Amino acid sequence: MPNYWLLKSEPDAYSIDDLARDTREPWTGVRNYQARNFMRDTMKVGDIALYYHSSTTPPGVVGIANVISNPHADQTAFDPKSEYFDPKSSPDNPTWVCVDIGFVEKFPRMVTLDEIKQDSTLEGILVAKRGMRLSIQPLSEAHFSHITSLAHQHI
DNA sequence: GCCAACGTTGGC
DNA sequence: GCCAACGTTGGC
Fold it and tell me: Could you read off the pLDDT of A16-49 as tens digits, one per residue?
């Protein structure tokens, strides 16, 4: 049984189209301990994630990715020229880890945050919670399935 | 651009 | 270990 997740990304930084082009990408740059712990401790190969575009108008879910690697050191933490450089992280004892994600699908339409908030079936979904800034969020299979079916539904 | 919410830092 | 200050996120 896979776990389900929601992955946030600003499309200016890395969009679903970028992932579709690259087909896979190490999910680097996570510098929040809770999000890191999800990747390090709970994510496993075969897990499935909704891909969410944040800081855009409107924000919303735009597709599906999957987890295709075990956790490994986030190399950007070792690069002094990277905006994600962290001198406290070393290859011997990496502070920050990431998993590789793969492209699964770009939805025919975005399911907007507003639509998610209006939908009573999605009650309790973390991304709709006020002040929720976690960039990697656990998701129920029911919520995953519902959003996926909305995305394939004409409106 | 504003600002609420939250996480992190650092002085004590 | 407390907590004020600060920085960041991200919707609006």
Answer: 999 999 999 999 999 999 999 999 999 999 999 9
- Measured CA to CA, the distance from residue A56 to residue A17 in angstroms comes to 15
Nucleotides on strand B lying under 7 Å from protein C-beta: 4-8
Which residues does nucleic strand C approach, with CB less than 7 A? A 8, 10, 31, 54-59, 113-114, 117, 133-135
CATH number among 3.10.590.10, 3.40.50.150, 3.40.190.10, 1.10.10.10, domain A4-150? 3.10.590.10
In chain A, % helix, strand, coil (3-state, to 5) comes to 30, 30, 45
Distance A90 CA to C11 C1' (A): 35
Residue nearest to nucleotide B4 (CA to C1'): A131
